[in-house]
Amino acid sequence: MPNPTKTQAREEFKKRVTDVPRFAYSIEEFCALVDISVSMYGKMRREGLTPREMRLGRRVLISKEAMTAWRTEREAASA
Hints:
Multidrug-efflux Transporter Regulator, Chain: A, Domain 2, 3 strands, three-stranded antiparallel beta sheet, alpha+beta, about 80 residues
């Protein structure tokens, strides 16, 4: 079986993320859902443009509510 390209691998990951209902997402899952790279997320975090994060042990998660609020803020900022 040939190795998938990065784009194919990302699409497969995105499909797996959306198949299971969740209340919160990891940063990698969030990035796949909103179609940005993890490095872009890091840049946005340094600029204060990311959704609220919550820590659960060592995990950093983004709740659905934080994701919705972030999307609303981003839409308002670009209008």
